[in-house]
Task: inverse folding
């Protein structure tokens, strides 16, 4: 039982390049989330998926797209990376969108030059 | 607007020196308050959920309490392994969690 897994762990991009961050969970959870964490800013929600087939914007969605591929997988895409997107990205999942605990992955550290 | 404010930003304690971390919140309708621990380079790890004012939960040296405006995370006789960033989050109705910026705790032997 791996919980929430994320790939890659580290990535360096040049401005304008694109990439997709992958996330998978094996807990049969309905809801999945993407956050970014920056020094002094805390965790900020980018996008979330309350259930398979639905996605919604969070606090900071600009410059990102997401895909809920199936119940297990939720990907985050940067179409044209910018230095402002340098951050640590966390994926999380929970049983539902209600007041349920979220389980977090280990994170992806992304640097955009 | 839903807001979560944690204080202090950083706290340095001697081993065995008990203290408390504060999480104050303003939300339209609180459905739950969560505490997480985050070690450097890792994802947050769930500690507690509190649902209503007056509720308390304990785990080893940690005790979380909740009032209508704030939550406290009490750390009794901390050890160096308790050093981490502690995050507070609220669930304000039908939207996902809103996180505070965290308190960075250092416990010195």
Result:
């Amino acid at each position: 039982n791996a919980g929430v897994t994320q790939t890659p762990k580290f990535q360096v991009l040049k401005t304008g390049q694109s990439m997709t961050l992958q996330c998978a969970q094996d807990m049969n959870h309905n809801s999945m989330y993407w956050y970014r964490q920056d020094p002094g800013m805390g965790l900020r929600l980018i996008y979330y998926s309350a259930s398979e087939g639905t996605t919604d914007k969070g606090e900071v969605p600009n410059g990102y797209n997401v895909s809920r591929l199936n119940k297990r997988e939720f990907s985050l895409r940067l179409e044209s990376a910018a230095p402002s997107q340098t951050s640590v990205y966390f994926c999380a999942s929970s049983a539902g969108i209600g007041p349920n605990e979220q389980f977090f992955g280990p994170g992806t550290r992304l640097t955009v030059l | 607007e839903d807001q979560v404010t944690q204080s202090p930003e950083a706290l340095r304690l001697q081993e065995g020196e008990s203290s408390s971390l504060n999480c104050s919140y303003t939300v339209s309708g609180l459905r739950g308050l969560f505490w997480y621990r985050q070690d450097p380079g890792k994802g947050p790890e769930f500690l507690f959920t509190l649902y209503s004012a007056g509720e308390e939960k304990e785990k080893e040296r940690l005790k979380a309490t909740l009032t209508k405006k704030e939550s406290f995370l009490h750390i009794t006789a901390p050890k160096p392994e308790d050093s981490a960033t502690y995050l507070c989050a609220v669930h304000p109705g039908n939207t996902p969690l809103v996180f505070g910026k965290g308190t960075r705790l250092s416990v010195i032997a």
Notes: Chain B touches chain A at residues 31-32, 34, 41-46, 49, 51, 87, 89, 91, 94, 96-97, 99-102 (CB under 8 Å). Chain B has a mean pLDDT of 95. DSSP finds no helices and eleven strands in chain B.
